[in-house]
């Protein structure tokens, strides 16, 4: 799923579908002021600021992020995820190709301090034999807080995507959930439906996946190796990839029921 300024990115594909809706770029917007002028305001900033200001955010910790765009030869239809506690802590790293010649290499570390990240990113590149790649640029993203919200709506303000805590805490994905929550918010506004009720099943799915994080954090590198080996076992591998059954969602749901 391509993001950003690329011609085929999700953002640009959605933008081309808009016929009459005006879009204002590079304009500061305050949801509190907008809520006084419009029937509804949807917060889709990708930040937790609004939820925190409204007292709706439940915090679960932070993730430290480093990355860069590199040139090389890549399989553009696949992405590689690296699990190694020596450089990622309880997080992970990922090589995600944009094309056959460009890729983003990112490190999401959980458990370290911010000042350690540059060293850990270098360690990651060296340990996984990626240091030889040519970097077009490197980036350091703001510290990413993880969490969920207690409510998705306050007055006429609706929260969607990461602003609504709909980013799962196992691997930090949430683009699809962001799109779905945006659609649900639109339906709620157009058809005068209860947005909270519409989005709750989506939150349950996200929390089921996030429930796997607790047992995952107890694994050392040997435990991670055993887990990957088990997933690649004939029979188990086919069941995971070919049956269409979301085993992580099921396992997380069981864990949540046990905890409750």
Question: Superfamily at the CATH H level of the domain at 60-145?
Answer: D-Amino Acid Oxidase, subunit A, domain 2
> Distance N terminus to C terminus?
35 Å
Overall geometry:
globular
Uncertain residue ranges? none
**Largest sheet geometry:** 5 strands, antiparallel
- Give the class from helix and strand content and strand pairing: alpha+beta
Commentary on this structure:
- This protein has 260 residues and is α+β, with helices and mostly antiparallel strands.
- The chain has a domain at 60-145: D-Amino Acid Oxidase, Chain A, domain 2 (2-Layer Sandwich), CATH 3.30.9.
- Helix content is 38%, strand content 22%.
- The protein is built from 11 helices and 8 strands.
- The protein has a 5-stranded antiparallel β-sheet. Strands 1-8-7 form a 3-stranded mixed β-sheet.
- A hairpin with a 4-residue loop joins strand 4 (92-97) and strand 5.
- Helix 7 crosses helix 11.
- The longest helix is centred in the C-terminal third of the chain and has 17 residues, at 175-191.
- The protein is globular and about 55 Å long.
- The mean pLDDT is 90.
What is the compact description of this entry?
The chain has 260 residues and is α+β, with helices and mostly antiparallel strands.
Q: Layout of SSEs?
A:
Blueprint: H1 10-17, H2 31-34, E1 41-43, H3 49-53, E2 57-71, E3 80-82, H4 85-88, E4 92-97, E5 102-109, H5 117-127, E6 134-149, E7 153-154, E8 157-159, H6 175-191, H7 195-210, H8 213-216, H9 221-231, H10 236-242, H11 247-259
Parallel strand pairs: 1-8
Antiparallel strand pairs: 2-5, 2-6, 3-4, 4-5, 7-8
């Amino acid at each position: 799923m391509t993001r950003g300024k690329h011609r085929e990115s999700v953002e640009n594909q959605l933008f081309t579908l808009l016929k009459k809706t005006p879009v204002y770029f590079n304009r500061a917007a305050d949801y509190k002021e907008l809520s006084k002028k419009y029937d509804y305001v949807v917060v889709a900033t990708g930040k937790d600021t609004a939820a925190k200001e409204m007292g709706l955010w439940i915090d679960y910790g932070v993730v430290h992020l480093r990355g860069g765009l590199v040139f090389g030869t890549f399989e553009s239809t696949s992405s590689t995820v690296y699990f190694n506690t020596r450089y990622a802590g309880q997080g992970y790293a990922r090589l995600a190709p944009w094309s056959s010649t460009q890729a983003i290499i990112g490190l999401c570390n959980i458990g370290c301090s911010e000042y350690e990240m540059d060293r850990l990113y270098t360690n990651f590149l060296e340990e996984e034999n990626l240091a030889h790649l040519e970097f077009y640029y490197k980036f350091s993203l703001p510290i990413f807080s993880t969490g969920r919200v207690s409510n998705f709506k306050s007055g006429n303000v609706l929260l969607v995507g990461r602003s609504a805590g709909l980013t799962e805490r196992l691997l930090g994905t949430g683009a699809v959930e962001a799109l779905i929550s945006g659609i649900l918010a639109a339906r709620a506004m157009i058809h005068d439906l209860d947005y909270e009720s519409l989005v709750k099943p989506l939150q349950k799915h996200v929390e089921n996946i996030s429930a796997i994080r607790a047992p995952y954090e107890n694994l050392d590198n040997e435990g991670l190796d055993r887990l990957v080996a088990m997933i690649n076992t004939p029979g188990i591998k086919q069941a995971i990839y070919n049956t269409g059954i979301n085993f992580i969602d099921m396992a997380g749901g069981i864990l949540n029921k046990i905890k409750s």
